Amino acid sequence: MVWLKEEIASKKILVVGAGGIGCELLKNLILAGFLDLTVIDLDTIDVSNLNRQFLFQKQHVGKSKSLIAKESVLKLTHAGREVSIDARMCSIFLPEFSVPWIKQFSIILNALDNVSARNHVNRLALAADIPLVESGTAGYSGESSVIKKGLSPCYECSERPRNKTYPGCTIRNTPSEPIHCIVWAKFLFSQLFGEPDDEQEVSPDAADPELANGEAAENKGNIKRINTTVWAEENDWDPKILFNKFFKEDINSLLSMSKLWEKEGRKKPSALDYDEIIGCGDGHATGSKMELRTLRAWHKAVTDAKTRRKRDGHLSWDKDDTDAMMFVAAAANIRCGIFKIEQKTEWKVKEMAGNIIPAIATANAVIAAIVCLQAVKILKNNIKKTKEVSLRVQPASHYILAASTFAERNPTCVVCAEKPTVTIMLDTKKVKDISNIFIQLKKFTLKDLREKICQKKLSMNEPDVEKDGNIILSSDEDDLDEVLLAKTLSEVGVGHGSILTAEDFQQEFKLTIHVEHVEELPEVDGQNELEFRISGQEKAEATISSQAEEVSVGKKRALSEKIGNEPAAKVQKIMDHLDLDEDEIICTDDIIC
Ligand SMILES: Nc1ncnc2c1ncn2[C@@H]1O[C@H](COP(=O)(O)OP(=O)(O)OP(=O)(O)O)[C@@H](O)[C@H]1O
Ligand SMILES: [Zn+2]
C-alpha cells in the first residue's frame, strides 16, 4: 500500500467549513497522512463551539476558526513532516473561488452547515469535475455521500429541507401553535428594528383566502395602511403604543374578519390593552399575573432593542443575541396568550426560534471518520464503490450505520441534468401583493427575477439573464441600478412563452427558463400566496431522517451494521425496529473498503 500512502501525501484536498465536522475532519486527514490541505471558514470561534470543536480552546474565542484549526492541527503532525495548510477566513462564495481555482484539488470535502453554501460547492465541484464528499449531522443523526459528475446524484438532485416555512395567513391571522407565534415575533423584530422585508409582514392579512369575497374589501377601508418600520420609528418605539397596535388594534381587526372565526375548533383571540393590564396609573393592575409578567418583559425588551437600534442602526435577528431573543420570547408569549396557545419558556422559545438541534460531538466524529475514509477510497480509485452512509441512533442509544450504493440520478435535476431546464409560472403582468393589508396589485420586477428566482430559488450567486441573445439582467454591479431593477418582466419583453437563459459564471452553471404566464397559480395546501411557481424541479424528498428511512425500510439496497459487540438479541431488536432483513445487514468493511 506504499502507493496509496504516496497518493494520500501528494494530493491537494479542500475542506470547506471548520466547525463541528470540519475540526474532526482536519485532525483525521492529518493523522491519515494528508499533507496538503486548504481550509476555508468565514466564522470566528464562539464559546458555544468549545464543547465539541476540540481544536479550539477558551483562549481562541473570537479568533478565526480556519486559522486556529490550522494552528492546532499542525501540533498533531510528526516532526519532520512537511505539512502545508492554507487556512482562509472567508466565504466560499467569494469570486476568487472559481471553477479553475477548484480544479487544483483532487477532492473537495464539505463540512458546512447550510444548504446555500452546499449548493454552491456542489455546482463548483460538478463544473470542475472534482469529487465532492458531502456530509452533515443533526443531533445524533448524520450522513455522508460522494458526489461525482455523471456517476452519482448531485447534492441538488434531492430536495434538502430549508428552514420550515408556514403559510403567511396562519402567521398573520390564525396562529394555532406556539411556533406560529414565535415566527410572527421574529418577523415583528425585523419589522421594528431590522431592515424592512416585505415577506415578513405581521399585520392582519386581508387577502386570506378564508375570507369570503367581500369581507377583505370591506375591511380595507377601515384599516389605515401603515409601513410598520417607519411608523415604529416615528413613534420612537414607544412600548405602550407598539403594544396597543399589535396586541389590541390588530387583534380587533382580526376579530372583525368574522369568517376567520367560523371554522370549527378555532379559538377567537382576545385583544389586550396596555393600560388595562398595568392599571391606569392608580396602582390597580387588572391584568392576570401572567399578563403582567409578559407585559413587563415586553417593555424591557422593546426598550433594550430600541437603544441598540438607535446606537447601531438596523439590527438583524440572531438566536445568540440576547436582546433579540428576549424580544421574541416576550412578543411570542403575549401573542400565545391572546390566541390561547400554550406559552413557552425563554429557553424553549430560543430553541424553537433558532431552530436549534443539539450538536453531538460523537455524531460529528463518526461522520468525519466516514468522510476521511470516503476520501481514501476515492484515492484508491474505488469511487464507484463509495456508499451513501447514514448514521442514526436507534432505541437505547445504539448507533446504526446504514450504507447504500449510489442512488439513481434525478433526470429533472436543475443542476446536473443534461440540459437543466425549469418552467416558471407567474403572472407576468400583475400579481397579488401579499405583503400588505390591502390586496394590492404589484408587478413582478427584474429585481424579483434576480433575488427571488435566480438567487433564492435557483441558488445562483451572481446571475446573468438573457432573452434571445440580449442581456436583460446583468451580474455586473455597475449595470444593476434601481431603475433597471424596478422594470417589470413585461417591460423587458418577457411574457408567456419566453425562453430565458440564466447563467452564473462563477458556478459555470447555465439554465434554461421557460416562462408561463398564468393569472391564478394553482393552490398548494389550500394556500395560494405564491407570486410564482417553479416546476421541472421535482426533487426526491431527502432529509437526514427520511433518507435513512429510505435506506433501511425501502428498497433492498440497504446494508447496515451496528457498531460494537452487542448480543445478537439486541441486534435483532434493532433490526426489527428499523424493519431490516438479515440480508440487509453487512459488515462495516462494505462501507469503507
Ligand atoms: N459560505 C461559507 N463559507 C465558508 N464557511 C462557511 C460558509 N457557511 C458556513 N460555513 C462554516 O461552516 C461551519 C459549519 O460548522 P457547524 O455546523 O459546526 O456550525 P457552527 O457555527 O460551528 O456551530 P453552531 O451552528 O452549532 O453554533 C461553520 O464553522 C461555518 O462558519
Ligand atoms: Zn443533480
Structure write-up:
There is one protein chain. The longest helix has 24 residues, at 289-312. The protein has three domains: 2-160 and 358-381, 3-Layer(aba) Sandwich (Rossmann fold), CATH 3.40.50; 168-353, Arc Repressor Mutant, subunit A, CATH 1.10.10; 421-538, Ubiquitin-like 2 activating enzyme e1b. Chain:  B, domain 3 (Structural Genomics Hypothetical 15.5 Kd Protein In mrcA-pckA Intergenic Region, Chain A, Roll). The protein is α/β, with parallel strands linked by helices and 593 residues long. Helices cover 37% and strands 16% of the residues. The strands form four sheets. The protein has a nine-stranded mixed beta sheet with strand order 3-2-1-4-5-6-8-9-19, sandwiched between helices. It has a six-stranded mixed beta sheet with strand order 14-13-15-16-10-17, with helices on one face. It has helices at residues 2-10, 20-32, 65-74, 99-102, 115-128, 168-172, 178-193, 213-220, 228-234, 239-256, 274-278, 289-312, 322-338, 346-353, 361-379, 446-457, 482-485, 544-553, 568-578, 589-592, and strands at residues 12-16, 36-40, 84-88, 107-110, 132-138, 141-147, 158-159, 388-394, 398-404, 421-426, 431-433, 440-442, 463-467, 470-473, 499-504, 509-517, 532-535, 540-541, 559-562. The protein binds adenosine-5'-triphosphate and zinc ion. Zinc ion is lined by residues 153-154, 156-157, 410, 413, 415-416. This is SUMO-activating enzyme subunit.
